Amino acid sequence: QPVLTQPTSLSASPGASARFTCTLRSGINVGAYRIYWYQQKSGSLPRYLLKYKSDSDKQQGSGVPSRFSGSKDASTNAGLLLISGLQSEDEADYYCAIWYSSTWVFGGGTKLTVL
Amino acid sequence: EVQLVESGGGLVQPGGSLRLSCAASGFTFSSYDMNWVRQAPGKGLEWVSYIGSSGTTIFYADSVKGRFTISRDNAKNSLYLQMNSLRAEDTALYYCTRDRHDYWGQGTLVTVSS
Questions:
Q1: How far apart are the CA of B61 and the nearest CA of chain A, in angstroms?
Q2: Residue A61 contacts B where some CB pair is shorter than 8 Å
Q3: What pLDDT, in 10s, does the model give residues A2-58?
Q4: Cα–Cα distance, B82 to B84 (Å, whole number)
């Protein structure tokens, strides 16, 4: 079982909200980790969006709009990326990552389609 | 402005070697940990290696351990990745990233093929 699991795809309408999940493998407690999120548009390099551990330990990436936010769902052991007010330009692949056991681990990515 | 510029990629035969470089500017390079992250064509992101700011702490992904060597020269604001015993599955765009991957270079393409 991978350390981080992300759904392969997600679709939502312009103006709506999108909720991305990054589920940590059983036995790895989401509460103990900072979850990092990255956006990669087609043909472009990845962009750092934000990191989230708790409401008192979070950081927005430089120039990242406030409609991008992080959270956690302890009940499902998942980190969450929330995008409100979806725009067509938000269509991209979204990756989560954690620093785990002296390695960086990336999730497989979720492709967001805005339709 | 933070800039990371990779170079050194190219076409190499299986079993061959390449040395990637990353030139950093716009920040105090010696104060930051650095990484190499790769992305195979049409695939997701895969972390390759980490080096601490002083160069003394180093980690590798299992997939490259024993074949790749990361290093840095803080006097030259440069990061390196020596890649030996290259395999077809090492074919990817290799990115240099700062710290928690808050900045990325444009990447350099490594193609391993006969």
A1: 7
A2: yes
A3: 999 999 999 999 999 999 999 999 999 999 999 999 999 999 999 999 999 999 999
A4: 7
